[in-house]
Amino acid sequence: MVNQSNQKNTGLSHLIWAVGGALAGLWIVRENLAWSKKSRAEKESPEDAEAAYTEIAEILDEWEPDDCISENDFTWDLAEYLAENTDLEIEVLPDSPVGKPDILIGDLIALELKINPSKAESDRCFGQCAGYSRLWITWMVIIDSPASNIGRLEELLKDKGLEHILVWNFL
Q: pTM of the full predicted structure?
C-alpha cells in the first residue's frame, strides 16, 4: 500500500508540474505578444510614454471643441488646446516615414481625427492608425459619430489585434 500511495503522489506531482509549465509557457507567449504590439516610443521610452498617455488622456477628456466645422478646424482647435495644457511638443500634420498623423504629441502619441467618417473614411483611418502604431501610441479621435459606428470600429480593431489603438468619441 505504501508503494501505491507514493505512485499516486508521484503521478500527481508530474501533473502539477506539467500544468504549471503549460501556464508559464502561456504567460510567456502572452507577454511576448503584448511586447510586440507596443510602439517604438513605448519600447524606447516606457516611462515617458506612460506619463504622456496618462497626461494626454486626462487633457483629452476635458476638451470641448469650439465652433468648428471642418476636420482641419477640429485638428487646430485640439492642437491649440493641447499646447495650452501640456509641456509636450505638439506638431500638426508632421511628415513621418508612416504618413502624416493629424497631431503628434511629444513624439510619443499620434492622433488621427475624423468627423463622422463614412465606411471608406473609417477604413482609411484604420490603415493610417495601424501604420502610426508602429512608431507611436495611437488614438483615433472621432467627432459626431453614432455610438454604433464607434462600436464597429472598436470591434474591427480588436478583431485585427489592434485593440491598443484607442477610439475617442466626441459628440
A: 0.80
Tens digits of per-residue pLDDT, 50-74? Answer: 999 999 999 999 999 988 999 999 9
How far apart CA 140 and CA 77 sit, in angstroms, is: 16
Partner residues linked to 99 by β-bridges = 96
Alpha-carbon span 103 to 164, nearest angstrom? 18
User: Are the CB atoms for 97 and 108 separated by under 8 Å?
Assistant: no
What pLDDT shows up at residue 33? 44
User: Per 3-state DSSP, what percentage of the chain is helix, strand, and coil (rounded to 5)?
Assistant: 60, 15, 25
Cα-to-chain-centroid distance, residue 101: 14
Side chain identity, residue 169:
N
Instruction: Centre a 10 Å sphere on the Cβ of residue 119 and count the other Cβ atoms it contains.
Output: 9
The CATH architecture to which 39-170 belongs is: 3-Layer(aba) Sandwich (3.40)
User: What pLDDT was estimated at residue 8?
Assistant: 59
Q: Which residues pair with 11 in a beta bridge?
A: none
The three three-digit cell numbers of residue 94, written as one number: 508632421
94/79 Cα distance (integer angstroms)? 12
